[in-house]
Amino acid sequence: MAEVSLPLRGGCQCAAVRYEISVEPQALYVCHCTECRGQSGSAFGISVYVERSAFKVVGETRNWTRPSDSGLPTHCHFCAVCGSRVWHDGPPDDPIVSVKGGTLDTPPDLSEAVHVWTRSKLPGVIIPAGAEQHSAEPD
Fold this sequence. Notes:
Blueprint lengths: L7 E4 L6 E4 L5 E5 L2 H7 L4 E7 L3 E4 L2 E7 L5 E7 L5 E5 L6 E5 L13 E3 L23
């Protein structure tokens, strides 16, 4: 991933929830699955993987849980006021959280993103030449 200026900051659409990330992200994914398209209301979802211990949130959130393709639960956290999805995580001992890229104050550079679930990609969406791609969930 491209080098970023820390800390990264972001939040929900109404700014009732704000967060700060104090370390560089570990990965950047563009996901074309139907779940991510549904949660983002767009052609894909953007996930920025960061260490849970470096992700600090201020504001009231709510969550709901859905099963992932792996069978493990995905906890989806959103603003209690405006409903914007802010991050996903798994079990409490999972050291990684998946911050929704559109909630960052400075948008991520998608030129180095890994594209996943490309078999569900919408027609007309163009993946950059040379980008790493996976038809489903990578190993």
